């Protein structure tokens, strides 16, 4: 399979899940494993451009396909606007759910550059934040959307003016 743009080949057991392949075989521990029930969504990665719960995918099923993990969001030392948004708007508390949230958010913004708060909530509805920080997560994604829109239209705009307060 291709992981973050690099081809990888390994001999693995057929029952190995993609989450464990990424973490234990490739050392990509940014993707977290949070449950045994396919509920938490902290394990979300992209498979051929679609967010998937990597604990529900056999590694062998990803053979020949493209996987993207949270490690690939930062490019050339520059944070993805989604990462920046989580930083600016306090989108994380313990940070455990954050990798999956960010991969889903990135996919959402690639399809819908200006999502409503409701659309953001629907997009992340398969993911659980135990720190109950949903208000700031939504705000973080909105920050990223505004920032990207600003850089697309007018470099002099100030997307930082998007609300950056704390959760209520
Ligand atoms: S680890 Fe919880 S949904 Fe995948
Ligand atoms: S920030 Fe702690 S689980 Fe979401």
Automatic annotation (TrEMBL):
Domain 2Fe-2S ferredoxin-type: 1-73
Cleavable signal peptide: none
Pathway: Alkaloid degradation; nicotine degradation
UniProt entry tagged with the keyword Secreted: no
Stretch list, region Disordered: 148-168
Aminoacyl-tRNA synthetase in keyword set: no
Protein name: Carbon-monoxide dehydrogenase small subunit
Native source species: Streptosporangium subroseum
